[in-house]
Design goal:
about 160 residues, Nucleoside Triphosphate Pyrophosphohydrolase, eight-stranded mixed β-sheet, 2 helices, about 15% helix
Length: about 160
């Protein structure tokens, strides 16, 4: 028996098939980092060949490994995916998104300072990264519909 979500994670109306999980599968605990600079956020386009959420715009981040805190996982992922060392992460995530039917627990953290220049060091995961302002966000095919609300508020306040 498989459980799956009927809704797609998209703000553009395009159908993005969610991953299918078997009942009893573990929850995937994911951290994401919104790097903010000059009124823009760094977005990463997931490669079309990705198994999970292909061909959508996402925030850098990934799974929390066993024994890691969310902050440790975020530091690790930002270094692995962007080659940076985060120096200023907000004390708590600005959002926690729970999609139990999809087996996902996601936390969204704001990163305001880092050492190094963000560079796409994982081209097999993301085919491009770019800085995006609040006016462009609604035109992106986002990995999660709630990103639009949270990121727009973050960039306009």
């Amino acid at each position: 028996m498989r459980a799956s979500r009927k809704s797609a994670w998209s703000v553009t109306g395009a159908i993005i098939p969610p991953p299918t999980f078997r009942l009893g599968d573990p929850v995937h605990h994911v951290v994401t980092g919104a790097l903010v600079q000059g009124g823009q956020v760094l977005m990463a386009h997931r490669s079309p060949s990705r198994r999970w959420y292909p061909d959508v715009w996402d925030l850098p981040g990934s799974h929390v490994d066993r024994g890691e805190t969310e902050r440790e996982a975020l530091h690790r992922e930002l270094h692995e995916e962007l080659g940076i060392g985060a120096t200023e992460i907000v004390p708590e995530p600005i959002a926690r998104i729970s999609e139990r039917a999809a087996g996902l627990e996601l936390s969204l953290w704001v990163v305001r300072g880092w050492i190094g220049t963000p560079t796409n060091t994982q081209p097999h995961e993301h085919d491009v990264t770019k800085w995006v302002g609040p006016d462009e966000l609604p035109r992106l095919h986002l990995a999660h519909a709630d990103y639009l609300r949270y990121l727009t508020a973050l960039l306009t306040h």
